Amino acid sequence: MSAKEEILARITSALHDAPVPAPIPREYRKGSDMPRAELIELLVDRLEDYKAHVDVVEQEELPATIAERLRDAASYVVPHGIDEAWLADAALANDGRRRIDAPGAVLSVTDLDETGAVLTSSAVSIAESGTIVLDGTPSQGRRAISLVPDHHVCVVPVSSIVRLLPEALPRMDISRPLTWISGPSATSDIELERVEGVHGPRRLDVIIVKGL
Amino acid sequence: MSNVFMGMPTLPVFGMGNLHIEEPFPAAAHRELGNTQMRANLRHATHTIRDKRLKVVAELPDWEELRDAGSATKNHVMANLPALLEEFEKNFTARGGTIHWARDAHEANKIVADLIREQGTTEVVKVKSMATQEIGLNEYLEERGISAFETDLAELIVQLGHDKPSHILVPAIHKNRTEVRDIFLKEMPNVDPDLTDEPRKLAMAARAHLRRKFLSAKVAVSGANFALADSGTLAVVESEGNGRMCLTLPETLITVMGIEKLLPGKEDLEVFMQLLPRSSTGERMNPYTSLWTGVTEGDGPQNVHLILLDNGRTAALADKYGRTALNCIRCSACMNVCPVYERTGGHAYGSTYPGPIGAILSPLLTGIKSEENSSLPYASSLCGACYDACPVKINIPEILVHLRGEDVDSKRGAKKLPSQMDLMMKGASWAFSSGKHLALLEKGLPLGKLAAGRDKKIKALPGIAAGWTQSRDMLAPPTQSFRDWWKKDHTPVAPTHKQEN
Ligand code: SF4
């Protein structure tokens, strides 16, 4: 008998009393009608609590803000699907610092390790917990690019913000590799003192864009 | 394959590995109580996490509703486990992943070792995982010439310090910063000799130490917090990014997961991802959660394996009073509120699972007849704080009492009784069967007074009660019984006001 058959048989025999559990009550909050301005405020509050830096900007201000956040980076990577218009600021034009990660032209891990920053978009954000979800679509890129560089600049369109996790899940494509980010990398393993940044990016800059 | 009875023996098959404690809890606890440094560290830690947890839990107006949903979901999973496992396997496999089944720790270890060897490597990076700790994977690999590097900071401290974890969330919580620095200086190659004990400096030393390993590792080993049956998705919850490194960069990823970790589907994440981080670290959300479904072309490992582990879980499931222990999502909230854990620390529980959940889960997985584990259900004051804290409402005190009963029964069956417990029980029924008997017993009370020292505390009791006083002092009984006092102070008087009614 294979291990699978044996384990399933053990389970079946363990459930000899055929338990019939009660139906699952779902009385918790499933939706909210929080106005957009408050959603932004809540998300900013949560992200800052995690020691992320947050800008809230109008769409026209986005390129300049991105340029500003990337100013100190010796080099930065962008996924191939990033909106070109976001990189339109003069400070980023003909930028020798820019590296594009694309299917068929991926950067090696060593390349990424030598890259100072990364710019990505995001799929959905949850205000109540301060969580930003990346789903690996072309504007967000494969998981490694938002992990290895030490500084992550992440664009959050206002239309992608919801208040509650139950509102966010229907917006996620579960079959894609998903990364939920709530602040920069952190540890509290030594005497529970929080230290930002261990293995993931030590700096997280979030740019919330109105009208997007 | 159908799930109907297939002619298998119905006896439960118990787990092996780091589930069996080596020393009975009372003896281990007695020794650990002498470690004042550890107690102080632990007290600070459990109280800090506890306060943070209460704060973020209070933010959610629907916390109790989330608990109800979480608890009911898990009961549903356990009742439908065969079908959910089949569904999960089908979906994970359809997405290019490979599933292995392991009856016990040994089988799981062997599958992992073989998979690593196939890749022609002798080094792997590891994400913190209770399942691999339970099966003793690191030791097994070490014996076969494979080095497994723990990448979670706390696990790294424990591993480099040749120590054992003492808490499931913060395994090195018994070490303070100076101890951590000393371990790093002694055990970490190329470490800066001027390393100070500032947590930031220590964390950065770990970062430097592990960075090369992450970037060059061919194989990673992880556990999983959740598995979604309807999509074949796995989830790992973490803080440092070491998990993301392991789950993303190597070509081969091997995950070991207990069969009880399943959830029906994506919708259930909305419950559990609210319950887990808040109960665990007291945060609104942990810094990183990774979800992957089999293999994704061009992103992450292309050779993806999952080992579904029994190792006593089916035995626990067979115990209809104890099976809800399998609902545990390993948040550690119960240990942070447990007065016994706070004083003895995690090492006293001996097995992979410490604290209140360990006191029920270990004996359920190994069977109560596992000689030393049979002391674990007594490692509790039954105060109920763990039940209140548990996000999936596992009634730990009730299961503790049930297991104590099993223990007594099993010993009686083995002709080890009449034990002191039996005699005490007999004595109690004799005493309570008649007021005269009780009065007679109470005459013995002043003796208790003598046994107590000047501080009016009894420090050692004989026999089975010794287990109780080994880790706590007991207030001496009063010099006279309530009955005696009542008799003396309440000479019956005629009920004078009765007529007024
Ligand atoms: S028993 Fe409950 S409180 Fe304890 S670790 Fe498990 S889920 Fe958390």
UniProtKB/TrEMBL annotation, chain A:
Cite the InterPro entries for this sequence.
FTHF_cligase-like_sf, LUD_dom, NagB/RpiA_transferase-like
Question: TM spans, by residue?
Answer: none
User: What sequence ranges are listed for the domain LUD?
Assistant: 40-209
The protein's name is L-lactate dehydrogenase complex protein LldG
From TrEMBL, chain B:
Bias kind Basic and acidic residues: ranges: 484-501
SUPFAM superfamilies given in the database record: 4Fe-4S ferredoxins, NagB/RpiA/CoA transferase-like
Q: Which UniProt keywords apply?
A: 4Fe-4S, Electron transport, Iron, Iron-sulfur, Metal-binding, Repeat, Transport
Q: Which InterPro entries match?
A: 4Fe4S_Fe-S-bd, 4Fe4S_Fe_S_CS, FTHF_cligase-like_sf, Helical_ferredxn, LUD_dom, LutB/LldF, LutB_C, NagB/RpiA_transferase-like
Q: Where is this region: Disordered?
A: 481-501
Q: Name one Pfam family in it.
A: Fer4_8
Q: Which residues form the LUD domain?
A: 85-308
Determine the domain of life of the protein's source.
Bacteria
Q: Which residues form the Lactate utilization protein B C-terminal domain?
A: 422-488
The 4Fe-4S ferredoxin-type domain covers which part of the protein? 325-394
PANTHER family for the chain: LACTATE UTILIZATION PROTEIN B
What protein name applies here?
L-lactate dehydrogenase complex protein LldF
What species is this protein from?
A: Paeniglutamicibacter kerguelensis
